[in-house]
Amino acid sequence: MENLHIGASERKAEEESSNFIRWIASKAGSPINLTQKIYSSAYTVTSRAAFGNKTKDQESYKSIMEETVKAAAGFNIADFYPSAEWLHLISGIKSKIEKLQKEIDRILGNIINEHIAGKMTETESITILKFSIRPL
User: CA angle at residue 7 from 120 to 21, to 5 degrees?
Assistant: First the structure.
């Protein structure tokens, strides 16, 4: 089973690499945002290895994770004065991150429930998540 899991993950990564190369070829002669595409491909490979081939919320998950990273990585004066709660309120970053976290929790809950309910095919369910939630 472990070898099957490794093979499935390799195929998913190879498929995403092929998609990435085809995307670059399709944009020949046009300016592209390579950084954004690399991040998107990395999120796709990671989420497919963790959750399976496709979930209804996969694109939402990628989008929310990108927003969360941008929000958390940006400059925020409240980071220098964590005890000054009013700075967190003025910046709005805390409430934004909490909102994003709730949405991520909802998506991950849906994915876990799909795995538990067995709505995924055997190939799709060979994921990190399956090994994490399986009974011992």
Answer: 95
